[in-house]
Amino acid sequence: MTEPVTTGPAGWITLPDVSEKLDLPISKVHQLIRERALLAVRRDGIRVVPAELVANATVLKHLPGVLNLLHDAGYNDEEALRWLYEPDEGLGGNAAIALGGPLAREAKRRAQALGF
């Protein structure tokens, strides 16, 4: 049996671009990351956010709750990123996709189950 292939975000957004997209000061973007309302990881030495997590001019509604559940289950930011993008057809492709649609509550329930 082969390992499932983990897919990643369709694209990355730098923190200054997130600031512009959300129409927030960069300090507020840093605060969102500290408070686990937004996920940022380092790629090539630069902190970036998966593009799908910033829908239109807002952060996905259920993302902060899921990030806090994952943190409470012992996940660091890289592990949370892997969990969000792990292929899962039951969630419409992966949890990151599910958070933007009708399967958001199921993704949140699965994140909650990781703590037990």
TrEMBL record:
Signal peptide: none
GO molecular function: DNA binding
Originating species: Actinoplanes campanulatus
Domain called Rv2175c C-terminal: residue spans: 61-115
The name this protein goes by in its record: Rv2175c C-terminal domain-containing protein
Domain spans labelled DNA-binding protein Rv2175c wHTH: 12-53
Pfam families: Rv2175c_C, Rv2175c_wHTH
